[in-house]
Fold this sequence. Notes:
4-stranded antiparallel sheet, 33% strand
Amino acid sequence: xxxxxxxxxxxxxASLAEDFRGREGVRTWHPLCYDLTISAEHHPGGNxxxxxxxxxxxPSEEWQFETNTVxxxxxxxxxxxxxxxxxxxxxx
Length: 92
C-alpha cells in the first residue's frame, strides 16, 4: 500500500472516535492507489462496524478481499487512532 503522508487516515479514524454518539450513513477512506479501503458504519447499541478491504490495483482489479470488525464507539475507536502502534506502522 502506498500513501501520501498517510492520506488522511489519522483524520478519518479520529473522526470516528469523536462521533461516538453515532452518525448516519457509511464513511469510507482509501489511499491514493485504492488498494485498501476502510468503511465505517454506526449501528444501534453504540457499535461501529468497520469493513476492511484489500484488492488488486486499478485497472486490473482482478481480486478483492473484505472482512468486518465491530468496535464499541468512543474508547474502542480511539484505540485505532494513529498514536497507537498498529496504525502508525501502517500509515508510514
